[in-house]
Write a structure and sequence with these properties.
This protein has 355 residues and is α/β, with parallel strands linked by helices. The protein has one domain (52-348): LarA, N-terminal domain (Rossmann fold), CATH 3.40.50. The chain has 13 helices and 15 strands. The protein has helices at residues 7-27, 61-72, 100-112, 129-135, 138-145, 178-181, 204-207, 225-231, 235-242, 281-295, 299-302, 310-317, 335-348, and strands spanning 39-41, 51-57, 82-85, 118-122, 148-151, 160-165, 174-177, 185-195, 200-201, 215-218, 221-224, 250-262, 267-270, 274-278, 328-331. The longest helix is centred in the N-terminal third of the chain and has 21 residues, at 7-27.
Length: 355
Amino acid sequence: MTHKIDRRTFLKAAGLAGLALGESQLAGTSQAVPAAAARILPLRRREIPGARVAFVKTQDHAAGVRRALDLLDLNPVQGKRLFVKPNFNSAHAFPGSTHPAALRALIERLNAMGADGITLGDRSGMGVAHQIMQTMGVYQMADELGFETLPFETLADSDWELLQPEASHWQHGFAMARRILEADGVVQTCCLKTHGYGGHITLSLKNSVGMVAKTLPVGSRRYDFMDELHHSPDQRRMIAEINLAYEPDLIVLDGVQAFTTGGPHAGTLVDSQVILAGTDRVAIDAVGTAILRYFGTTAEVRQGAIFENEQIARAVELGLGVDRPEKIEFVTGDAESAAYAEAIRAILLEPGMLP
């Protein structure tokens, strides 16, 4: 197994990260940075006929994940070398980060479905991924379940690829970890919460930000992609554009609890009692946004029709998922889940809401 890193390797990576941060502060987003050669990501411009979302009302993370995957009744991972993207932006308790019971249930199911190896990796925005994974018990879980871990601060500059979507709001594009791009399949598990730093919602589309480098040489300077993202008025569109780089094989959203204000690490906590599973990021995020509205949320998340949310609307423009709520099919397996799903469907179909 390669998930353990020695102290020397870790300290070297941390030192490089600190150096990168200092250089990025000198560069700033207002400086003109010569663009490096980026691989162009074409817009998909496709119409998706429909999307199925498994919807389970539950207070049990593990049982909910297993039930949702049973209802989805798909096996898109057999024989694939998988990259699994959790939500380890910080070590704050769920829903600030992925719940260990949900992660364990997901990895166990992926193994049972015949995955040909699993790597779990993340870049943390509010801490160091290696330390966060250690705090969350991920290394012990990796030993028990037989998967590799990859804290992204251990990656070299050459381990990232610069990508630029067509008609992008990114100045120079963004850099994604090659391990993700080279995997046979990608599975992500996200939480249900608002985002208090400009994203408005942080569900499956926003979870992809952790796949992107914070800093990387671009031309003659070290560029801070996250500084650009968080200071741009187009932040929510840029979040959606990251998702052009890959196609998820499976998405599991753990909404047993949610932050309806604040986020991503702390906020107003509600018992939202739901697990969602699917393959369409737009559908998952649209349903998740409707659930946030159901419990009462921020003015930004309440305003307008759900498919007018800037992350979701831009994702639709890019061809990343279904283009309207009527194309989302809920899959439930019991009366309580069905009743809950119908209440959420009604919100999903509303033409707009006042702030």
